[in-house]
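Holo model, zinc ion. Inputs:
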Amino acid sequence: MNVLIKNATLVNADTSERADLLTRDGIIERIAPNIELPEDPSVEIINAAGHYVIPGGVDVHTHLNIDVGIAQSCDDFYSGTVSAACGGTTTIVDHMGFGPAGCSLHHQLERYHAFARDKAVIDYSFHGTIQHIDDSILEEMESMVLEEGISSFKLYLTYGYKLDDSQVLAALERLNQLNALTCVHPENDGAIRFLKEKVLAQGSNAPIYHALSRPPECEAEAVGRMINLATLAGDAPIYIVHLSNGIGLEYIRQAHQRGQAVFAETCPQYLSLDINKYNSSTGENGAAEHPYDEGLKYIMSPPLRDSYHQNQLWQGVMDGTISTVATDHCAFTMAQKRAGRDGFQYCPNGIPGVENRVPLLFSEGVMKDRISINHFVELVSTRPAQLFGLYPRKGLIAEGADADLVIIDPKREVTLSQRLMHGRSDYCPYEGMKLQGYPIMTLSRGEIIVRDGHFTGKPGHGQFLHRQPLNECFRYWEK
Ligand code: URP
Ligand code: ZN
Ligand code: ZN
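Output:
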């Protein structure tokens, strides 16, 4: 089926245009002020008057099928991508989870291909995970980038497979040579260990102590360290994932003033939820069964912060210091989260959100006049596609690009609720939040896969995306 979208406002990161758009065989074939076609049963006509059409959302930070040691996340490549599609996201780049100690990069790649194939309903790729560094991993990176199309890798400064500074330098230097982007989870492992042991020794194991033992300084220190290590590694471009605090943001701003290629991502949870969630004993639906249950829903790393940091992050989004908004979707059920009733350290870290990102940023950003509609498109679609080697096939409405399109009705009012979500988690972190504007249709390579909140796509429609190495223009910071 081909689609003719009429009377739309087509929005890109740099332009908005009133035009009609025709898709054919999964590609945007034509954009023109008025496209009239002879009667053709193979073309569905959609009247999008009063609506925005944006390039499909590109979420470059999800964790599907991830095993975090104490639990296995509940969304796989079917439920996670259905949820993404229903929220206006048409491409994900998933962080391959951890494999057995010492495993190769290809080991995880093969596992993730098997997880996604035949299940994904939208297009997808993966970031490589660097669990350890040795000659064989450094060697293997080349074929991952050039043959397998994996042009970004993630390393952790905390958790079980953290790298030390010399390993980080080795990874940065090698990935820089290969024009691959290094993504970092920045938290100071030693400081967290010290603070965590201290609160637990005092018998303080409620959810709030998860946040208090991972304060903003732990994250900011690691952000600053990464910025300096990247310089030492020959000006390697870096991508800071899930930035949650204003101190780290300031370090990034200073790096930009020196022209350093430091790209920062934040997530809707850090822009719209705050640290008080950990102290809450009742949710939107009334009293919880256990005093910790409500707080456990929000256990993630880094944790939610106070309103100072939230305001700083919005400032960073508005002034362009923050390049992308992704979700870090890592969903668990309440049954899994309830392991934290015995102490926050037993609660699996992560929250669902892949379905909430596009509508939430549209409502909180565009409809509240914090960012323009073009800047919104840049944050949720164009810039992630550019940084991760998917542009101009993704992240752009133009003739020849993939017909990944989302129609947003700015008049649609939605109160977020678990009942409306399509993932497998049984709670929504944004329960009760009122949004102005919502995606009403999602097309993936020309197929209508969501109509008015109903998923109409098919498992296996999603294709693996072989990504390009980092574009030269992202080797230096330029606004
Ligand atoms: O708590 C989180 N963020 N869980 C997912 C893994 C990660 O750190 O990105
Ligand atoms: Zn992380
Ligand atoms: Zn993550």
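The pocket of N-(aminocarbonyl)-beta-alanine (ligand 1) is lined by residues 63, 185, 300-301, 328, 330, 349-350 (CB under 6 Å). DSSP finds 14 helices and 19 strands in the chain.
Archived with the compound record.
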